[in-house]
Amino acid sequence: MHDLGGGVLLDLKRWNLPREPVVRESLEAGAHVVTFRGDKVLGGPQAGILVGERSALERIRKNPLMRALRPDKFTLALLEETLKLYLSPRKLLENHPVLSRLAESSDEAMRRAEKIHQAVAAKGVPENMQLKVVASSAQLGSGALPLEEFPSAAIRLRIKGMPAAQVAMRLRLADPPVVGYIRKDGVYLDVKAIMEDDIEPLSHALSDLFYV
Question: What pTM, to 2 d.p., does this model score?
Answer without folding.
Answer: 0.77
